Structure formats: C-alpha cells, structure tokens
Amino acid sequence: MSASLETTRGATIRVADLVKRFRSGDETIVGVDRVTLDVPAGATVAVTGPSGSGKSTLLHLIGAIERADAGRIEVDEVAVTGLSGRRLADYRRGTGFVFQRFHLLPALSALDNVLAPLLPFRPRPDDVDRARTLLSEVGLAGRERAMPGQLSGGQQQRVAIARALVGRPRLLLADEPTGNLDSATGAGIIDLLWRLRDEHGMTLLMATHEASLADRCDRTVEIHDGRIV
Ligand SMILES: Nc1ncnc2c1ncn2[C@@H]1O[C@H](COP(=O)(O)OP(=O)(O)O)[C@@H](O)[C@H]1O
Ligand SMILES: [Mg+2]
C-alpha cells in the first residue's frame, strides 16, 4: 500500500503593514507597500493586478523566500517575519510554493526533484514512498526517473506541485502557475490544484492575471503599485 496522505487543516494568514523595498542603483522601488491582509483557514484567495504590481513579492514574503523591511506576517501560530535558522527552514519546508516557470532542478529526476525540499533534513524512511505517492497523485506514476528536459511544460508543473506538497503544507502559494502553459494544459493544472487543496486541506493563495481563475477563488485581492486597492 502507498504511504497515506493525511488530511490537514489549512493555515490562517495574517499580514499587517507589510513593506518590501528594492534598491536599484540610487532608486528605491517599493515592491509591497503597507499591505494588510487576512486569509481564513482553508480559503482560496486570488491576488490579481498588473505586471509589476507586487504579486510575486507578496507571495515571496509570505513564503519566507524574501524578507520584509517592515510589518508582520503570521501563519497560524508562527510569526514568519521573525524567523531565522532552523525555525525558518522548518517553516519553508511546511509551506508549498509553485512558480510560474516550474523551477525544477534540471540534473535531478522527477522523483529527486520532489524530494529536494527534504534534503536539508534527516531523511525519513517513508519520504520516498510519499514522493512516489505524490507523483502518482499528480498523474505521473511511472515517470519517477524522467528528467525535467524529457517532460512537457504541464508535466514539469505537475512535478513542481508534487514537490510543493512533500513537506505536508497547510499553505500553498502559487505564483501564476499557468502563466507558462497553453490554456488547456493550464486548465488541467488548476483542476489539479483545486483537487489537491481539498484532499490535503490547504489554504491556497494564488497570484494570477486571469479573471476566469480569480472567479473560481473565494476572494480576490487586487494590488496596484504594491498597495491593495
Ligand atoms: N529583486 C528585485 N530587485 C529589484 N526590483 C524588484 C525585485 N523584485 C521585484 N522588483 C520590483 O518590485 C515591483 C513588484 O514586482 P513583482 O512583485 O515581481 O510584481 P508582479 O509579480 O505583480 O509582476 C516591480 O516594480 C519590480 O520591478
Ligand atoms: Mg510576478
């Protein structure tokens, strides 16, 4: 029997007065400008807005891929903005992130890409079973040994989704997950994300340009120039 994928409850997100600035030469660009946002456990929220409005930056901050300059992020009981070291690594492992450009490691097989987030941690005997089960859940049973270059864009995004789930996240962050795919393939990826969200009991926060996608979410948050409008 395959490893069981136990259901968890989605995470609650609380963002308050969040600021992120970027320095570019002697210019300062404000990527996220005093954003305040509450997402209840299990909700699916779309983040929309034009290119350059701060969608990716907001998701990177919540996923602790980038560090905020000011403000506060809490995900469940964790004060994300204050994390460092081991606790930061634990938080990142437990937060799924799906990128527009998949970001698979080209020299690793599909199975090893799914396992990659666990590499800094002591391996558990059932990790490989879990990774195989996840690949099967995303429709890639039998492709464990395939290299990213041998997979279509849609298949690569499926591997990336399995990778995002390997740390048993209660929060899944998806940054324009269909932005690099044709519409039919993208629709399949969205159906998959919705199914996995329900099966795994996750909160889903997704940046998207597509109105039809935002319509399927419980709520839409629109940002312009880093600010919620
Ligand atoms: N690493 C970076 N260095 C400098 N500027 C950045 C960086 N990341 C994002 N920005 C700037 O921050 C703003 C928001 O970018 P981003 O969050 O990528 O927007 P979106 O995802 O909505 O297209 C843009 O003006 C962008 O140029
Ligand atoms: Mg972006």
Automatic annotation (TrEMBL):
<dbReference type="InterPro" id="IPR027417">
    <property type="entry name" value="P-loop_NTPase"/>
</dbReference>
<dbReference type="InterPro" id="IPR003439">
    <property type="entry name" value="ABC_transporter-like_ATP-bd"/>
</dbReference>
<dbReference type="GO" id="GO:0005886">
    <property type="term" value="C:plasma membrane"/>
</dbReference>
<dbReference type="GO" id="GO:0022857">
    <property type="term" value="F:transmembrane transporter activity"/>
</dbReference>
<feature type="domain" description="ABC transporter">
    <location>
        <begin position="13"/>
        <end position="229"/>
    </location>
</feature>
<keyword id="KW-0813">Transport</keyword>
<dbReference type="Pfam" id="PF00005">
    <property type="entry name" value="ABC_tran"/>
</dbReference>
<dbReference type="GO" id="GO:0005524">
    <property type="term" value="F:ATP binding"/>
</dbReference>
<dbReference type="InterPro" id="IPR017871">
    <property type="entry name" value="ABC_transporter-like_CS"/>
</dbReference>
<dbReference type="InterPro" id="IPR017911">
    <property type="entry name" value="MacB-like_ATP-bd"/>
</dbReference>
<dbReference type="InterPro" id="IPR003593">
    <property type="entry name" value="AAA+_ATPase"/>
</dbReference>
<dbReference type="InterPro" id="IPR015854">
    <property type="entry name" value="ABC_transpr_LolD-like"/>
</dbReference>
<keyword id="KW-0067">ATP-binding</keyword>
<keyword id="KW-0547">Nucleotide-binding</keyword>
<dbReference type="GO" id="GO:0016887">
    <property type="term" value="F:ATP hydrolysis activity"/>
</dbReference>
<protein>
    <submittedName>
        <fullName>Putative ABC transport system ATP-binding protein</fullName>
    </submittedName>
</protein>
